[in-house]
Amino acid sequence: MRILLVEDDLPLATALHQSLRTEGFTANHVADAKSALLAIDTNECDMLILDLGLPDMDGLVLLKQIRQKNLKLPVLILTARDSIEDKIKGLDKGADDYLSKPFDVNELIARLRVIERRLGTATTSTITIGEVNLDCASHELTVAGKFVELSRKEFMLLKVLLEQAGRIQSREQLESKLYEWGEEVASNAVEVHIHHLRKKLPDAFIKTIRGVGYSIKASANLEH
Amino acid sequence: MSIRRYLTLILLSVITLITFAAAIQGYRSSMAKATSVFDNQLRSLTFVLVDITDLGTQSIQPQTSAAFVFQIWQQDKLIVNSHPALDTAITEFKSEFSEHNFLAQRWRTYGHFFESSKKWVLVAQPLNSRFELSEQMILAAVTPLVFCIPLLTIIIFLLVSSGLRPLRLLSENLRNKKVDDFSPILLQNQRNELSPVLDTLNQLFERLNAAFSREKRFASDAAHELRTPLSVLKINAHNLAIELNDPSNTNMQYLQLGIERMSHVVEQILLLNRTNPEQYQGQFEYFDPASLCQTVITSLFPQIEAKKQEIELLGKVAKINGDEFSLGILLQNLISNASKYSPEGSLIRVTLKSLNKRVIIQIEDTGPGIDESEYQRVFERFYRIGGDRHNTNVSGCGLGLAISQHIAELHKATIKLSRSKQLSGLSVELLLPQSDPNE
User: Fold this and answer.
1) Strand order in the sheet with A206-209
2) Which of A54, A83, B63, B255 is the most buried (most CB within 10 A)?
3) What's the pTM value of the predicted model, to 2 decimals?
4) Chain A / chain B CB contacts < 8 angstroms
5) Cα separations (Å) of B53 from B66, B70, B88, B116, B433?
6) Please, what is the average pLDDT of chain A?
7) Topology of domain B281-433, per CATH?
8) Does B294 contact chain A (CB < 8 Å)?
9) Which fold has domain B194-272?
10) Which of B220, B227, B294 sits opposite A213 (nearest CB)?
11) ipTM above 0.90, yes or no
């Protein structure tokens, strides 16, 4: 995936550029909004990492201009501003994700992978955690090498949990994902599907956080 | 003393003083006038008397009660005397006015010599009568003024009050201003004299406003300036760790730990400044505390998971009115503390409940808890239990509870520490006043 990094702080851009390369991304770096617009017009890029405090233009204004040109280009905002209003503003203006500085590189990479999978540009679409391996393209699940059958809804829930491994997904969040898929959702639908999923997965693979939601431990590697 | 009272009193005193000065002056001039009138009268009297005596002395009936006495002398002989007790000349034989004492009174006397009949006519009038007349005249003039003083007081008071109205409006306006309201003051019917005051005040407000917003901006400016280089450090450390490819390298571990701590301290200092109740302008609205707790637990979950701790959220309450952003920080601090200061495998329990019109968010853990003697001190800035002997594996800077205290004050809430009855560790209760959404 080709990433355009729009960041005016050169040391940050250089370090981040190296991290992205190490993780197998192709990245180009520009230091101001003008060059960014030029790069978007001339070079093909699949995704934008955008710093909001640019010298020649506010990052949110740039985002608006990009949205007017190309609706699909995913944008991840990277900024030192961290108030709720700034976040809401950023997401309202059409950002796909938001990370506050100082951020963890692993966190950034994980979020980039999610966007990559959504775009379908990932070189492989397989998520592996421990013995569990899910192919997002073919909807196939293998546990310890053995093929396991999944319903549509079970696949969807497992995919979300695997993609966000190490983080909690609340019942409401999972429910809204089911709605996105155009499913009729009964009040206890999420619990029922999780119950069925658990039977097909290793013991304690899906963890319940009482009163909050569900999580899958991100101990094993994410492979792509 | 108020300007109104001062002006009323001073105006009244000045008016009274001037009135009496004028009265004294009036008394003097009416005295002079009376003197000349009575003197003329005396002189005319001599002519009348000599004319009458020329006709015959018998026609004059001496009257002891008369307002004046007279004598007519001819060749040193007293031929007519108005008062039997007077047998000597009542004044010198001179044609002039003078004053003499006789008959137990002071008299104004006048003598006139008539060449034709060779007679001296001497007349005298008591001075009393002149004083009485002058006094009556002046009293007649002054009395209405004296009666006017109360009326004058009321009128002056009302006029001064109305003249000072703009000043009163200004002070009321200032008194009703909120602490953080720096908008300029606008007065209707503004007086010229007040314009410079008002202009200066409004300029002052403008400057204060600018200073305050600079102060506020400082936090976000500092945030940007510190966060970006911290990000660089963090990314470089990450890249270096990958290049080294040696997870057991302790230098690398300490480097990353140091960077983590530094970012934490920077964030906490910024938060402490930003949530200062005098500066922070929260956006109060109704929200579900349970969903806020979920969000906070979700964001802290990696840290809790890493320590193999369990966390649970129990109970449900009605919506509360508060600033969700700052309350999120408060809960984050409290729950993060519970995780940091409890050993691996501990249980953290977050409970929501309503009691006596208050919403209580309780965070308990199975950790060691803290000694009751430390309950007060842990809220102090940069205070950490055990001081430098504090477990250095725990990243913290002793600001978390000070920030939480700020945010609690902002919500008129209290933070209560105690020993957890069920989990035996520390229990932190956030007691929030519950307000009716329909109010």
Assistant:
1) A168-170, A213-216, A206-209
2) A54
3) 0.59
4) 91
5) 18, 12, 19, 13, 115
6) 83
7) Heat Shock Protein 90 (3.30.565)
8) yes
9) Helix Hairpins (1.10.287)
10) B294
11) no
